[in-house]
Amino acid sequence: MDTLQIVLILLAGVGAGAINAVVGSGTLITFPALVAFGVPPQTATMSNAIGLIPGNIASSLGYREEIRGQGRRLLGWVPASVLGALTGAYLLVHLPETSFEAIVPALIVVALIMVIGQPALQSYLKKRKAAAAAAGKEVAEAAEPGHESVGRKIAVFLAIYATAVYGGYFAAAQGIILIGLLGMLLTDPLQRINGIKNVLVLVVNAVAAASYIIVGFEKINWLAALLVAIGSLFGGYIGARVGRRLNPVVLRCIIVVLGLVALWRILQIH
């Protein structure tokens, strides 16, 4: 990589770390950047997952107030993230790279739809929670986390597992998908759910990264992973601190444009 590419990947890491802390889908910044500079898609996914871990840690710490008191719930949900991440990482490492390149365009399209549709989804979730509160339903559950019914706990576990499989395989917009699913299954405020999301995404990326290192070490671009790691560390801190002040429309437009660039680049490979 030349100096300009190094600087651009660092900046992409900063942007991805910040966006992951606020909404998720930061992979749609770093993944296109790596692919644009000639990193094969499968290698880009592995290197990106490793590089984003520092940013995940920073954003999780930044949301510690939102996740305070939820230790028991998270301990019950972490196994779903671990199992899902292992499943997704296994698929990524063992399926042929041609299969990954064939599947990724569809995954990017799904991720972009989730990014574009997130405002409408958040609006729906807020109205749903307001209606439930007005009707006096599940107020105690929202005030005292961990009192979900058995059926709802099972549904949450399965939703987290399914999202983790996706995250272990590709990762882009897994945070948005997880927020959407948890928002429909839990009665917690969205900022609280965002804190939960940051922790569970950290688990998924850490488990997936460990799997990649163990069984796919030779496929990882370590310079790219290091650059994304440095950038995402600063970005995760910035996002957790000031991310709520950023214009979400601008961020969403940037993500969509870069996602389309990644889609075009992968289709060009074929």
What would the keywords be for this entry?
13 helices, globular, mainly alpha
How would you characterize the overall build of this protein?
- The protein is an all-alpha fold and 270 residues long.
- It has helices at residues 3-22, 27-36, 41-51, 53-62, 64-67, 71-94, 97-134, 139-143, 150-169, 174-185, 190-216, 222-242, 248-269.
- Helix 2 packs parallel to helix 13 (248-269) and helix 4 packs antiparallel against helix 11 (190-216).
- It is globular and about 60 Å long.
- 50% of the residues are buried.
Quick recap:
The chain has 270 residues and is an all-alpha fold. It has helices at residues 3-22, 27-36, 41-51, 53-62, 64-67, 71-94, 97-134, 139-143, 150-169, 174-185, 190-216, 222-242, 248-269.
CA-atom Rg in angstroms: 18 Å
Number of strands: 0
**How many DSSP helices?**
13
Strand content: under 5%
Distance between the termini: 23 Å
Structural class: mainly alpha
Order of helices and strands: HHHHHHHHHHHHH
What helical percentage do the residues reach? over 70%
Mean pLDDT: 80
Unreliable stretches? 138-143
* Biggest sheet architecture: none
The gross shape turns out to be globular
Record the SSE blueprint.
Elements: H1 3-22, H2 27-36, H3 41-51, H4 53-62, H5 64-67, H6 71-94, H7 97-134, H8 139-143, H9 150-169, H10 174-185, H11 190-216, H12 222-242, H13 248-269
